[in-house]
Automatic annotation (TrEMBL), chain A:
Organism: Roseibium porphyridii
TM segment ranges: 64-83, 90-112, 157-174, 206-223, 229-248, 255-274, 286-305
Keyword check for Mitochondrion: no
Taxonomic lineage of the native organism: Bacteria, Pseudomonadati, Pseudomonadota, Alphaproteobacteria, Hyphomicrobiales
Location(s), subcellular: Cell membrane
Keywords assigned: Cell membrane, Membrane, Transmembrane, Transmembrane helix
Main location: membrane
The name this protein goes by in its record: ABC transporter permease
Record-linked InterPro entries: ABC_transp_permease
Membrane listed as a keyword: yes
Topology term for the membrane: Multi-pass membrane protein
Automatic annotation (TrEMBL), chain B:
Keyword Coiled coil appears in the UniProt entry: no
Residue intervals passing through the bilayer: 12-35, 55-78, 90-108, 114-131, 143-162, 197-220, 250-269, 276-294, 300-319, 331-349
Annotated keywords: Cell membrane, Membrane, Transmembrane, Transmembrane helix
Localization of this protein: Cell membrane
The protein, known as: ABC transporter permease
Organism, scientific name: Roseibium porphyridii
Family annotation (Pfam families): BPD_transp_2
Length: 322, 368
């Protein structure tokens, strides 16, 4: 029983990682007042960029850089449309999702001729699992052994990066001057503008930060968890991340717990497939898949406490009336 | 920089045209990037979609889907709501069509089944939009987020229903049984053989879609409810002061919008597939966003935009056949670019255009 729990938690961590990275990405953007439903597209673009470059160069780090570059480019496009041109942020996000879905499949097919997939990555092209010191030696120790050996040790570097990004994000947003301004611009851009700080530049930095983290999330999918890019490999994870962001009420630590919860539901649904629960019978796997979305709707309805978004989220800022 | 500064034809003709042209220009660049000739590609695309009867038939078939989902998004736009859940609403709408057809197809001809199918799809689609609408109206949860969530919930629900409850006994496929004659809409090819639509599944629901366009036009511009919807969309605060109930407006608009999206299933389920199956919506709900943006939320514009997207779908299929390196994903790219330029970047060209038009208008003012 304990072993099953550890294994489930282990896959929870693996499944939560891309959600967490994308969720923190959304946190920067939305805290600055730029709603981003293009997380899915940015992740997908990054996964493709990372997979393609990691395959060609056989270097996972270059792959990661490429993923980040693609994602930041899409983020800048979102910024250009919704910050500079004051376009509708939702529409822009939808466009980015379409562009990423189409371009990755199209270019993947043109470049690699494998139905949009990238070929399997060569040896150096993947982030391998890191085995922590003494993990093997203490594996036999009851309780501590599996906990340390399975759960803490044996993940790739992006997993650790994701969980380190949580305190870092907290510090940036709530303890640094940049973070204070970033949050302020999401609540009251006019006040920030009056203080002589550029709303535009602040928001651009926020969407760049969002792009970087989405780049990590996408790279995780194609060159850490997977061994290459597959068509539509994000499969809605960007939207679950968005749900987690709302669930976490736009706070970093809560974001981590929300992503762990959603990852756990995913892990359980995989483990429960075809298994009977005593007294209840078999719970359809689709129920677990829908649960993150159902929970988010219930939360949005205000039944689990109120989720109040940043006040200026979704509203383009107009410096002066013309 | 509001619309009043420009002549109407510029606002409703030139600027959308420029946005569209920009989208297609970039699409052409993508084709060049792949290493194909974009002009050749356009030729294949236009010929494949309009060059012969069957191609036209397929174009109209796809256009029928887009008219429904486009109208759905447009009606919500008028109330300032962004219904991004057409995908889920259409999917659930399929249930309504399937229920009507499965229950009636053995006993009555299609023209008796059709009203029930329309009612069923509209009711199911509306029901799926009700909760997001109601939550926005009464609890302030944003309709964009809830409808996205409802798309995913719909997808899980339908997979469950088709795998466990509605599945044809003894079948491996996740789908209902095939409808009998009484659950099938006639193909236009059988009604008008002289058009030569061939095997194109374009069917009578095209006329249902056009009827829906007329009704939406009447609703939005000729009824009290439509006036309330537009007032609420233009300025919610002022509308509330004028005695328009925000809860009623939001909920009713979302019901209409969801109902229209649900009706898309008539074309796919009763008109073409003749059975309820997994993933029959495949993005038509999202394309509705592009259609509504391009059609400027007006039924006439939506019909034109739907035909254009129908051409893209059918011509794109032809294109991927003739130029294998341009896969059907190219259509998704073009859609993304259209949404980007016609939607998110719609104001990009406006300042330049206003500058271009201001001197001539000023001159005219002097003469007068």
């Amino acid at each position: 029983m304990f072993e099953v729990l550890i294994l489930t938690l282990d896959s929870t961590v693996r499944l939560s990682t891309p959600l967490l990275l994308a969720c923190l990405a959304g946190l920067y953007s939305e805290r600055s007042g730029v709603v981003d439903i293009g997380l899915e597209g940015k992740m997908l673009g990054a996964a493709f960029g990372a997979g393609a470059v990691a395959y060609i160069t056989a270097n996972a780090w270059l792959g990661l850089m490429a993923g980040i570059a693609v994602s930041v480019a899409l983020g800048l496009l979102h910024g250009f449309a919704s910050i500079s041109n004051r376009g509708n942020q939702i529409v822009s996000g939808v466009a980015i999702n379409f562009l990423a879905a189409g371009l990755t499949a199209l270019l993947g097919q043109t470049w690699f001729q494998q139905g949009g997939r990238t070929p399997s990555l060569p040896d150096g092209g993947r982030f391998r699992d890191i085995v922590w010191p003494f993990a093997e030696q203490i594996r036999e120790v009851p309780f501590i052994g599996p906990l340390y050996g399975e759960l803490i040790s044996g993940h790739n570097i992006l997993v650790y990066a994701a969980f380190l990004a949580v305190p870092l994000t907290w510090w940036v947003l709530f303890r640094s001057r940049f973070g204070l301004r970033l949050r302020a611009v999401g609540e009251s851009p006019a006040a920030v503008d009056t203080a002589g700080i550029s709303v535009t530049w602040l928001r651009y930095r926020a969407v760049i930060a969002c792009g970087i983290l989405c780049g990590f999330a996408g790279a995780y999918l194609s060159i850490a968890q997977g061994s290459g890019f597959g068509v539509n490999m994000t499969a809605g994870k960007g939207f679950i991340a968005l749900a987690a962001l709302i669930f976490a009420k736009w706070r970093p630590a809560s974001a981590m717990f929300a992503c762990l919860l959603f990852g756990f539901l995913d892990a359980v649904s995989i483990r429960m497939q075809g298994q009977e629960l005593p007294g209840i019978g078999e719970i359809p796997v689709q129920f677990f898949q829908a649960l993150p979305y159902i929970l988010t709707v219930i939360l949005l309805a205000g039944f689990i406490g109120k989720a109040i978004p940043p006040k200026a989220a979704g509203i383009p800022y107009l410096k002066e009336r013309s | 920089m509001n619309s009043g500064q420009l002549p109407r034809w510029v606002d409703f003709g030139l600027i959308p045209f420029l946005n569209l042209a920009a989208a297609f220009l970039v699409s052409g660049l993508v084709v060049v990037l792949i290493g194909e000739n974009p002009l050749e590609a356009v030729k294949i695309l236009v010929w494949g979609s309009l060059g012969y009867g069957e191609g036209i038939g397929f174009t109209l078939f796809y256009a029928t889907n887009f008219i429904f989902t486009g109208l759905a998004v447009a009606v919500a736009f008028h109330a300032g709501l962004f219904n991004i859940g057409g995908e889920g609403q259409a999917y659930i709408g399929g249930l309504g069509v399937a229920f009507a057809c499965l229950a009636l197809d053995h006993y009555v001809p299609w023209y008796v089944t059709l009203p029930f199918a329309i009612l069923g799809s509209a009711l199911m689609g509306a029901a799926w939009a009700l909760i997001p609408g109601w939550l926005q109206a009464t609890r302030g949860s944003h309709v964009v987020i809830t409808t996205i969530m409802f798309n995913f919930i719909a997808s899980s629900l339908m997979v469950y229903l088709l795998n466990n409850i509605l599945k044809k006994p003894g079948s491996m496929q996740s789908e209902t049984r095939t409808f009998e004659e009484g659950g099938r809409l006639p193909f236009l090819n059988d009604i008008f053989p002289s058009f030569g639509f061939g095997y194109a599944p374009v069917n009578l629901s095209l006329f249902v879609a056009l009827g829906a366009c007329v009704l939406v036009w009447l609703l939005i511009w000729r009824t009290k409810l439509g006036f309330e919807i537009r007032s609420f969309g233009a300025n919610a605060t002022a509308a509330v002061y004028a005695g328009i109930s925000p809860v009623k407006t939001i909920v009713v608009t979302m019901l209409i919008s969801g109902g229209l999206a649900g009706m898309m299933a008539i074309n796919e389920i009763m008109g073409s597939q003749h059975r309820l199956l997994i993933d029959f919506v495949t993005g038509y709900g999202f394309v509705g966003i592009a259609v509504a943006l391009m059609g400027r939320a007006h039924p006439v514009g939506i019909v034109l935009a739907s035909v254009l997207f129908g051409m893209l779908y059918q011509g794109g299929a032809e294109l991927s056949f003739e130029m294998p390196s341009i896969t059907r994903d190219m259509i998704i790219v073009i859609q993304g670019l259209v949404i980007l330029f016609a939607g998110a970047l719609e104001h990009m060209f406006r300042p330049t255009i206003v500058r271009l038009f201001t001197p001539s208008r000023a001159l005219k003012a002097k003469e007068a």
